[in-house]
Amino acid sequence: MSVRRVVPNIRSEATEESREFYGLLGFEEVMNQGWIVTFASPTVPTAQVSVMTGDMTAPVTPDLSVEVDDVDAAYAEVRASGAEIVHPLQDEEWGVRRFFVRDPNGRVVNVLSHR
Q: Which intervals hold domain VOC (predicted)?
């Protein structure tokens, strides 16, 4: 299993202000689902920041997202470790398969693969 990207998720209602601020740093909006907006560097597309009002299908807002090449393998490994699964592995309507796990620092990590 390999990591494709890591994205910090900022819980906020200030999406327009965030768009303007991250634009000052050279980021461009690359995704807007209404409840989550992702900004990326046009020269390094995996350098990203997301701003979320809340998660659409999960009970909590994740602190960061980790995209892996095989989310099923990651899920099996995390479950075997005994880590707390916060949101079960499932396919989402916006084209990802994901689960949430709590890390040793209490942070919620969204682990995902694009379908």
A: 2-114
